[in-house]
Amino acid sequence: MARKDTAADAANSGRLKQIVLTYKMTRKADKKIGLVLAAVGISILGVFLAIGFLIGHPIYLGILGLFLALLTMAIVFGRRAERAAFGQMEGQPGAAAAVLDNIGRGWTTTPAVAMNRSQDVVHRAVGKAGIVLVAEGNPNRVKTLLAAEKRKMNRIVADVPVHDLVVGTGEGQIPLKKLRTAMLKLPRVLTGPQVTATNDRLRAMGDLMSNMPLPKGPMPKGMKLPKGGPKAR
C-alpha cells in the first residue's frame, strides 16, 4: 500500500513539475498568460457567485463556478501554450518533422527523405490519406525537391495518392500551427492493409540517409572510408 502511495505521489509531483515548466516556457513567449488566466478564472467564478446570491444558493453555485473556472483556465492555458510552442518552433529547421511525429495514430512519418545543400528539406508521412510530402525551406527551392520526390513515389507506389504541403507563412503555404489540421482534413482513401503495404514498399526503397551518395571530387585529406568500403551494385 505504501509503495502505491509513493508511486502516486511521484506521479503527481512529476505532473506538477511538468505544468510549472510548461507555464515558464509559455510565459517567455506570452507575457500576459498569468493575467489572462486570472481574468478568466475570476470572471467565471464571479458570475456564478453572483447568480448564486440571487437565487439563494451561493455555496452550490460557488463550487460549480470554481470547477468551471479551473476547467476553462486549463483549456485556455493549453491553447496559449500550444500557440507559444508553435511560435518558438516557427522557422526552425526540423519544426515540421516535430509536428508530424505528434500527428497521432495511423500515421508513419519519415523525416528528411530529401534535402539540398541549403538545408531545405522534405519529410514524408504515410496514412489513410496516402503519402504526404511536407517541405520546409525556401518555397522556390523546395519545389524541385518535391517534384523529384513525387516522381520517385510514382515509380514505386503509383497506385497511392501523393499530396504535397509547404510549411510557411507565404501565399499557398501552410502555417506550422495548422499543419496537423491540414493533414487530418485530407480524404481517407486507403485501408489499413494498404497503408501497411505502402510503408513496406517505401521502407524497401530506403531513405535519404541510406541512399546518400558519396561527394564528388577528391577525398579531403585525412578522411577515411568506412571499413569494407562501398558495396558494389
Number of helical stretches of at least 4 residues: 7
Q: N-to-C SSE series?
A: HHHHEEEHEHH
Report the C-alpha radius of gyration, rounded: 25 Å
Biggest sheet: strand arrangement: 1-2-3-4
What is the number of E strands? 4
Query: Rough shape?
Result: elongated
Biggest sheet, in brief?
Answer: 4 strands, mixed
Overall pLDDT level: 78
Distance between the termini: 63 Å
Q: What does this entry show, briefly?
A:
It holds the Pfam family DUF4191. The chain has 233 residues and is α+β, with helices and mostly antiparallel strands.
What does this structure look like?
With 233 residues, the chain is α+β, with helices and mostly antiparallel strands. Helices cover 55% and strands 12% of the residues. The chain is built from seven helices and four strands; from the N terminus they run ααααβββαβαα. It has helices at residues 2-29, 33-55, 58-89, 95-101, 139-156, 179-184, 192-205; strands at 108-115, 121-127, 130-136, 162-167. A four-stranded mixed β-sheet has the order 1-2-3-4, sandwiched between helices. Strand 1 and strand 2 (121-127) form a beta hairpin. Helix 1 (2-29) crosses helix 3 (58-89) and helix 2 (33-55) packs antiparallel against helix 3. It is elongated and about 75 Å long. Mean pLDDT is 78; it is low at 208-233.
